[in-house]
Amino acid sequence: MKAKWLTGPGRPLTRFGEAPLYQEGLYELGASSYAWMVPNGSWGETNIGLIDCHGKSVLVDTCWDLNFTREMLRFAAPIIRSSPIEIVVNTHADGDHCWSNQLFSDKKIIATEACIAQMHQHKPQTLRALRVGGKALRHLPLMGVDKFGHYMTSMFSPYDFGPVTLTEPNFGFTGSHELCVNGVDIIVTEVGPGHTDGDAMVHVPDQSVVYAGDILFIGVTPVMWAGPFENLVTGIKKLQSLKAKWIVPGHGPLASAKQVQQVLDYWHFVFDELYVRFQQDQEPDVAALEVLHSNAFQESVFATWDSPERLVTNAYTLYRHWGADLSSLPGPLSVMDVLRRQAKVAFELPYACPKCMHGF
Question: What is the pLDDT of residue 340?
């Protein structure tokens, strides 16, 4: 059974100029659960949840910039007029899931304590600087800086971070938090650290709906910023155990049980392939590129997913948990260095989408 598409902006192309693999907009899932789905699930093409609780609504995540959040709210207006948004849940602290919290600063905003602690780790002004400075970096062909500049400029180009003011959740929890809003039961479960330090998923049991956040990417290469691997795998298995009819990933189309299993298969595949290379003392980015060019990867379903170069970030996270001493750079600079290496790998993958990231 397919979800019913209700309304949307009707764009002929995605934000990155790709052919959309599914229709953007608001989908009806259960009797009163909805998902705002954004093709094709690349950077900032984030899915949002909306749960109509008979006079009040719960919003699951907000967008990377205010413009796209306001667009979603306009199309969802018929629902929100009768059931105004009173509660927001952030599934984690990545900006594309929480940077429009300021539009709901007078509402209850829920997240894990670990998510709240991480909320200011990456700031809008940093991405504003990268978006502008990336244009200059494209002219510095040294250590892959030019590729990094192009990569950052391209992947941030659809977004306006200028008006964003970080707004923290005002209610934190650990473990799980249960809501009953006008008779609708909603269970928010901590599943991090994994993708980030503070991941959570949102389950509406009576409607058999789960909003998975970024422990789940469908048709898009998943990324593990925090780890460890074991926690992320356990979180996905916990998601599977719910046997939900509707599974809304953080990015990509609505998920089938088969597709969720494919994400688990990806993590086991890259763990095994990278660990062999870790034992051979290969650098993480070198190991990642070798895996991406391998016959085993090229013959798998993973080769069809957007943004395969994210394997570089995943390699660095896995190596770190295996005890490798990878960088003397402080936190944010270390992340930028990994993304610089990731950008270099993207240019080695001309088949990969979105094509704008590597000059096509």
Answer: 87
